[in-house]
Structure formats: C-alpha cells, structure tokens
User: Which sequence fits this backbone?
C-alpha cells in the first residue's frame, strides 16, 4: 500500500469515525423527529394527539418583526412631577392618528431617575415607551401595592349573535388545525373565532376534581367554571371543514360535551404598544415589606404588542404580568431581580402569563417563587423559551386549575419544575396543567404527572431528578431521554419557527 493509498484509507476511516461519534452524540424524540429534508414529523399517540406546533405565538405570530418606532416626544428626568410629565406625553400622543401599521409613535425617556408615586397608564394603541437602557430608571416611590406601568384597553370577547356552530367530529386531537362543523355557512377566511370547549360535570368527575381533600376554604371544581375559550382565525374552508391558524391544544371530546365555534368581536382591545429598554425599581422598607410597588408592568385587553429589554428590582409580585385577555405578546430580554416580600403564596411570580398565544424568551429571574408561570384556565398555546431562574424559592410551571398547551423550551432553574395535581393547595389548585411540554429543560427536581383524562404532559431531554410530586399515585407523565445530552432539535420552538417561516414564504 503506497503513501497516497494509506492517506485515502485513513481519511475514510476518520470520516466514518466522526459520523459514528456524531450519531452517538445526537438523538431524537420518538414523538418529534427530523426527516432527511430537515422537516419535522410528529408521531401521533393512540388517539391521534401530537405535540402541538408552538411557532405562531408572540407579536403578530412571528409574521413580522417588532418595529423600530420613531420618537415623537423626548423627556428628561427632573424629580419634579415626573409621573405627570410622562402621563401627559402619553395622553397627547394618544390623540395623534395611527399610521397604516397602527403606530402613533414613541416617547423617549432619557437617562435619569423618574419618580413614579402612582401608576403610568397607556390605554391607546400604537404607543411605545422607550428608555436608554438601565440608566433610564423609573422608581416606584412611597407606599402602597400597585402596578407601575399599566397597559390595557377596554371590553371583552363578545360572541356574535347566532354564530355558534357545533363541531361534529367525535374527537379532535391535540395538534390538529382542522375539523368539521355542522355548517360553514356564514363563515369566511379571516374570521376571528373562539373554539369553545365546555366544562362538564362528567369531565370534572373523571378528573376527580370534585373529590379534592377537604379543608377550610376549599372549593371543589364546578363544571360551569371550566369553559375554555381559544381565540383563533380561520385560514381555510373546504365544505364543512375549517382550518385555523393555531392548533387545538386540548382535545375536543364528544364524551365531555364536544366543542363549538363562534365568531366574536373585541371592541376596545388595543395593539401595537411597546415597553422598551427601561429599568424599574420599587422603594421598600425591609426584605419582607409588602406595602410598596407590586407589578413593574401589567398588560391586559391587548394584542400584538411587546416588552423588551426591561429590568425590574424590588417589586413584590412581578416584572411582567400578562392578564387573561392579553394575546400575541412578546416579552424578551428582560430581568426580574431581588423581589421584596414575604416568601409565601401570592408573591414573586416573576414572569406571569394568564393570556394566550404569548411568548417569553431570553428572560432571567432571581429569588422568585414562580418565575415562569401560568395561572388558571390559561388557553394556549404559550411559550417560555431560553429562560433562566436562579435562587428559586418555589417551582416553575403551570400553577393551578388547568392551564392548557404550554411549551417550556430550554428553561434552566436551580429549583423545581412541576406539572402535577396540586390537590388542596390554595383553595383547591388541583390539576395544574395539561399538554405541557418540557423540552431540553434543566432543573434540580421535576414532578411530571398525567391527568386522569384529557391529555398528557411531556418531559423530553430533561436534565433533572424526577420525584413523585406533592401527591403520590398519579399517572406518570411522558419522560424521554432523561439526563441525556444531544437532543435534536435542541430547541423545538426555534425549529418550529424556522419550518413555519419556510412554509409561509
């Protein structure tokens, strides 16, 4: 064998060796695989349910970038009536007509300390409140629990009369974007609809949420309190089959009342509002003081808006709190630091989401209790991506009473992530969530349980110690690749976004 031949053979063996090592380093979930062409393929379970597509959450469902809004007012901190000056600029800008994109303009707060004894309110669309980074500091001065920045419209979801239509499929599985209705008459592409999933007595009974261990103040679940309303848009109609923009994240089951759709309006909901590059701090009197600023930023009755580059310190409850009527909000590159309160229930929910189709990404929290958390009956999909928690005082995950369809993707904590039956905690938290997905997450301990009916919970590529959770005897959730490196794709959310954007080109 000559020298050239030896080099060729060595090269071939090197390539084969590297391919072998590569194959050993990477693995795929049996539920979500990457095909040869790079596209994802989803493996359905025995009922046809798949892990949902979470790509279309956040500002305009990733279809347009967050805009760089031009400045219309520039303010300087003087310590004299700072709150009033900011509010006056907001009120003046609210009178300006929006442009074709729904934008009015930005208010730039130059570097300095702005004293805020009460709350700043934005109640009109198209307004951006922008600082110059952490040196633009809003200080919640004085006493009293309050929200420092409140962004909210008015009104609620209103059903269009005589528009309710029955879903005729006996079972619409999780992940599906199309289903059959009794009649598509009167519907058109672009219609905003609610996909309605009723709460029923049989469903409550099968979940055993009418059997929570009794204690003083406990409230057993009641069917009428558990109707779920998922906001969607019709993207296609063929006969009596309709297709929607975001997937079903809780199965529609005839045995539990099936499902319906109806058209809706929401007069008063605002949009295109941004809070950017600000630092907010609350004055406080001792580490357990609770008579001071509570939420740094609160959004509700709002859609297609964003919070970016915000840092909060010393608030008792949250950096960002999204209310139940917030939709398609992106919260990114933000920090919740050093909260001041007692370390007990109802405090330190660093990034709280009660709305739907919302995205939290690249966020950081320290010393919180529930750092990345959803509340009761939260209608997904929602995503927490690439978020970190340090010195955690409690757990991350769905907090109580049946949050639906959340992806926790590359979330890292030195505390716990739990998806479980919380039993009689609070006034009867019960099953915290369903169709929750932990993808490539890292924690100290994790409890993951499947509810008795109506869905599963997944931990794929989890790096943590599993434990039974608060209550033993519950079904174990789906666990795959525990403490195993090399999950492909490393981020389900980013891969789904990449694929969705290619499909929409």
Assistant:
């Amino acid at each position: 064998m000559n020298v050239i031949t030896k080099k060729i053979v060595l090269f071939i063996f090197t390539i084969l060796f590297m391919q072998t090592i590569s194959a050993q380093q990477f693995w795929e979930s049996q539920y979500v695989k990457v095909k040869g062409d790079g596209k994802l393929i989803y493996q359905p379970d025995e009922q046809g349910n798949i892990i949902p597509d979470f790509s279309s959450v956040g500002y305009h469902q990733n279809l347009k970038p967050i805009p760089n809004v031009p400045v219309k007012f520039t303010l300087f901190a003087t310590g004299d009536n700072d709150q009033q000056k900011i509010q006056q600029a907001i009120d003046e800008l609210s009178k300006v007509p929006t442009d074709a994109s729904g934008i009015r303009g930005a208010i730039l707060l130059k570097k300095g300390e702005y004293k805020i004894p009460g709350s700043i309110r934005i109640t009109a669309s198209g307004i951006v409140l922008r600082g110059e980074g952490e040196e633009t500091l809003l200080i919640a001065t004085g006493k009293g629990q309050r929200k420092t920045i409140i962004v909210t419209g008015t009104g609620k979801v209103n059903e269009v009369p005589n528009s309710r239509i029955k879903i005729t499929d006996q079972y619409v599985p999780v992940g599906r974007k199309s289903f059959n209705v009794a009649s598509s008459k009167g519907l058109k592409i672009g219609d905003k609809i609610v996909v309605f999933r009723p709460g029923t007595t049989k469903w409550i009974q099968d979940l055993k949420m009418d059997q929570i261990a009794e204690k003083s103040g406990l409230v057993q679940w009641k069917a009428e309190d558990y109707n779920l309303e998922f906001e969607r848009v019709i993207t296609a109609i063929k006969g009596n089959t309709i297709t929607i923009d975001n997937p079903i994240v809780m199965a529609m089951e005839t045995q539990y009342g099936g499902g319906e759709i109806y058209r809706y309006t929401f007069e008063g909901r605002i949009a295109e509002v941004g809070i950017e590059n600000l630092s907010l701090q609350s004055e406080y009197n001792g580490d357990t003081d609770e008579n001071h600023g509570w939420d740094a930023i609160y959004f509700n009755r709002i859609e297609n808006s964003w919070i970016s580059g915000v840092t909060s310190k010393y608030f008792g409850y949250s950096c960002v709190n999204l209310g139940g009527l917030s939709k398609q909000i992106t919260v990114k590159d933000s920090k919740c630091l050093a909260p001041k309160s007692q370390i007990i229930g109802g405090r330190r929910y660093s990034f709280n989401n009660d709305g739907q189709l919302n995205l939290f990404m690249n966020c950081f929290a320290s010393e919180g209790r529930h750092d990345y958390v959803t509340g009761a009956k939260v209608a997904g999909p929602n995503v927490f991506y690439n978020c970190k928690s340090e010195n955690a005082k409690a757990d991350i995950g769905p907090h109580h009473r049946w949050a639906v369809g959340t992806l926790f993707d590359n979330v890292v904590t030195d505390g716990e992530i739990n998806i479980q039956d919380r039993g009689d905690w609070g006034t009867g938290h019960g099953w915290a969530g369903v169709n929750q997905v932990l993808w490539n997450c890292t924690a100290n301990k994790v409890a993951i349980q499947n509810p008795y009916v109506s869905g599963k919970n997944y931990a794929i590529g989890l790096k943590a110690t599993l434990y039974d959770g608060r209550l033993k005897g519950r079904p174990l959730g789906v666990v795959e690749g525990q403490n195993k490196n090399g999950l492909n794709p490393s981020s389900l959310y980013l891969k789904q976004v990449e694929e969705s954007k290619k499909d929409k080109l």
In short: DSSP finds four helices and 41 strands in the chain. The two ends are 53 Å apart (CA to CA).
